[in-house]
Fold this protein.
Amino acid sequence: MTVSELPYDAGGDSELVMVCREFVELVTEHLEGSLPQEVERAIGAHLELCEPCLQYLGQVRATVGLLGALPAPSLSPVVRTRLLDVYARLHEPRSGDRHGDQERPPRRQM
Amino acid sequence: MEQQPEDPPGPGATVVEAAVAVGGSHVQADLLDRLRAGDRIAFAELVNGWSPALLRLAQLHVSTRASAEEVVQETWLAVIHQLDRFEGRSSLRTWVFRILENVARGRGRREARTLPWSSAFPEPRDPADAPPSVDSTRFRGPEDRWPGGWTPTGRPTSWQPPPDDAAVAAELRRRLGDALAELPDRQRIVVELRDVHGLTSEEVCERLRLSPGNQRILLHRGRARLRQQLEDFYRDRRGPGDDRV
């Protein structure tokens, strides 16, 4: 494995200076708004100058957006067929009895 | 059966529309008659129409897709067998979704005992243990003039066409769905609850009994991997001969 300088290495005595490698590790906390103010300031300063990191941030946002727009899952065909079969069998017309509604369910669930 | 009075979802209404009708209405009585008499087309319409929403709802309570599917199956079986006993005081839809909630909650509670959320949680607090979000070869080394900056070939470039463009949207969604399914369980569950279902971080922490810090770490790792998969998709699409820059 790799890494790791400490996250946000202080470049001077007071001002935090952030590099790209550190920014990508903080991007979620940045989006969550859970970072201390001085770190947020360092991120803001970094993004003003760093087009690739701005791209990266945009891509993370786009990923989250796509996740929210994923199509609803559908039931697997096997399960669907099985359910329709159970229903059909329960209502199978018996000798001369065209409507299944007299029939009692053979067993109860639960 | 004969009466088709003034009720708005009249004879032309689909089964799914009729199933929202209030308890006691003609429309509902009609539909219940059909379902109790074994009208397979009506039943199939309900299964097709509601199963996606039922699956989504089930996934809020249980940890895997397979388990959500079992919850939905169990729900439909209960509906099939209890239809005769349904008194029709609520709409059919409300009744079915209530059954699902009960089945899913029960199963979710049982699963919570088997999923190693808190006890066996590998404490990822030490950054040295964590895999980097982006492959480290994409950053300049310590000897470089700008250590920790993107290398010329490693830097992210804009995704073209954008993800919502029809030319890529379907394939991108498929890729993302696959990548999501392949995430490690804990990352997947957190990403699903947060980003797919839209729960807040507080809701997720409470539901999974996670600390806010651990929740963020799981979310971060999951999202980082998914972003990488989408980037790979765009790179593959451009073709290998194409340079990143």
Summary: Confidence is low (pLDDT under 50) at residues 1-8 of chain B.
